Amino acid sequence: MFKPAITGTGVFTPDQVITNDELVESFNAYADKMNAQNAAAIEAGEMEPMQHSSSEFIYKASGIKQRHVLDKEGVLNPDVMHPLLRQRSDDEPGVMTEMALDACTKALAQAQADASEIDLVICAASNMERAYPAIAIEIQNALGAGGFAFDMNVACSSATFGLQAAADMVRSGSVRKAIVVNPEICTGHLEWRDRDCHFIFGDVATATVIERAEDAKGDYFEIISTRCATEFSNNIRNNNGFLRRSRPDGVVDRRDMQFMQNGRKVFKEVVPMVSAHMLSHLEAEGVSPDNLRRLWLHQANKSMNDFIGKKVLGRTPEDGEQPNILQDYANTSSAGSIIAFSKYSDDLEAGDYGVICSFGAGYSVGSVLVKRH
User: Fold this and answer.
1) Residue 29: in which H helix or E strand, if any?
2) Which of 29, 285, 328, 335 is the most buried if burial means most Cβ atoms within 10 Å?
3) Active-site residue, 156 included
4) What share of the chain is helix, strand, coil (3-state, %, to 5)?
5) pLDDT tens across 56-65, in order?
6) Is the pLDDT of residue 89 over 90?
7) Which residues, 6 or more positions from 268, have their beta carbon under 8 angstroms from its beta carbon?
């Protein structure tokens, strides 16, 4: 058995940014347009008028100040309200592969590794731009990697589930060097016309190199152990899929074809689930919460992370112990915890412990206990 280690990470950040103020201006224009179109029904009491959003409401509800996106023009157009991405031919790299290559190149550079050494590519994300061929195989081909590749979808927990799969294969010896990549185009499945969620997501891609610790060419994080769990819930759901055209209403514009959640229930049910999961994982490994130097949590909601951090550590986390990046990136689904890890891990010293943890639809939760070397 070999010791798996994280030797490099990379983050692709889109150039375009949407601030809360820009988003609110666009949403409120859409709301005014819809209220005008339905003025008679509203006057008759047959429907409720759409309420305005505000930057204050968004920040208080989430802790988000802005988000990086692949396309802001379509999102901010009240007559469109979704990203506009150009049609690509089958001979061109897909947009997820382009994003992935940027993140992978950075991760490989940090690991001082060549793409040809990679013998496993896992594309782990909340949505894939097509069903087949696998996005991971396209990334493998574009990188010039060997071995094999496959896609994985466990919504916001995809990255940590992917890390567990890669670490287990490195540990067993079936692969020597792997890369887990998380290209998240969350703006594509967000319902920008819904006041309760229109501010939640952004776009990004992250990549993580996992290899045998003995092969590491520099400082690394040993993966002590991983733990994943799932429990079925409909409180976060998207009903889009390949069977859509086969059903009675075909491809009509339906609310449930985009991201949906019952936010209050999610908060109430997920916080204790994640806290208990992490504490159980630590106990099984004989690591006290007092020994944790850092928590790199899923970046969905600041209040949620504050509650989880306090429950796991048994106190309010000090500055730097539980870094948040969602104020700048918003929720980037599976990539969020990896962004936090990539940006806030260099200062850890040899022997320091930390936990990467992501959670979301499913419900699903994955945790990765690491030690700095």
Assistant:
1) helix 20-37
2) 335
3) yes
4) 40, 25, 40
5) 999 999 999 9
6) yes
7) none
